[in-house]
Amino acid sequence: MSSSSSSLLALPTEFAAKIGLRALQSNLISDFLVRIGTRTLLGTRLKEIYKSTGEEQQNELMRFAQSLKEMPIAVNTEDANTQHYEVPSEFFKLVLGKHLKYSSALFPKPTTTLDEGEEAMLELYCERAQLEDGQAVLDLGCGWGSLSLFLAQKYPQSQVTGVSNSETQKAFIDGEAQKRGLTNLTIITCDINSFEAGKRFNRVLSIEMFEHLKNYQKLLKKVASWMEPNGLLFIHIFTHKLAAYHFENKDETDWMTRNFFSGGTMPADTLLLYFQDDVSIENHWKVNGKNYAKTSEEWLKKMDANLKRIRTIFAATYGEKEVTKWIVNWRTFFIAVAELFAYNDGEEWGGDSFRPRPLGIFVILMLSRSTMPYLIDEASLLSLYWSLGLL
């Protein structure tokens, strides 16, 4: 089919998307239809990213990894602030759990609440990052301070530094730290492209920030230089189990990109394995996507329970005429996230590569290569690998 024919065929789809978007933002479409539409778009996305052979799939992943190395560390950073992080903290207090964790919680039991799920995931980070009291810890992309505040309180002898690109987030975290009497927490506002730590840390943690980044190679080179010789880097990101792709604003169907994820990246499960120039991956865990789905469903419930107060917040933030539009946008965002991670029972992996698979989550523990400058022979390397349980 010629490119002109493809363009003509795309016109009805784009037109329908425009009409549908207007109806959606006027609050004329039910949640049921939004969910059906989201699942349909996810199915379309999977058809786009799956290749016909394993060889083609791997070649595409390697092409994507190479392309990231030619990009800045992050793009559209101001858009991310506008879309998420400069929204008043009062809104997030009404929809998130008590720790204001704007990322996946963990639900080990059906009866686990959102507050309990937030704490369970934070505790899991501590365990897997091998955190101990007295360490110097850097929290890259600290959000509303869920991890930074948690660590400062849990490890009173540690010095915790959090980095955010949002003045709103810094003001909120500083205020919370003061209320709690925490004197071991410092929050820095800086674009990740230009951030320089200026000191070394025993542990560096990054929770759901790499999805906003592009050039992992450049950033990991920086991070390795900020780590003590025996330091560990812990990264928690959401992924697709096979393919990596950019969030791009191509047409009206790219609603998520335009409103919530400009400059974003969906990493593949194995993508970071190709960025080990300055770090060495030591361990790798997975968390089923249904945990994130339930997290977002809980956010939606809390938003619906607090709509009257949220209307007042949105009127002050977006203007009175935009209130309905942004209530719909945020509700649709939470529904879309829930449907995304619940897809195919939270696994997105099957006997054949075309089966629909949800976007999952994985966690990586990294060891700085600076721990191995003295290892110059094979016997020493084998001894290290044995001690790490890799052999």
Automatic annotation (TrEMBL):
Q: Which family does it belong to?
A: Belongs to the CFA/CMAS family.
Instruction: Give one Pfam hit by family name.
Output: CMAS
Q: What is the superkingdom listed in this entry's lineage?
A: Eukaryota
Q: What is this protein called?
A: (S)-coclaurine N-methyltransferase
Organismal lineage: Eukaryota, Viridiplantae, Streptophyta, Embryophyta, Marchantiophyta
Where does the sequence pass through the membrane? none
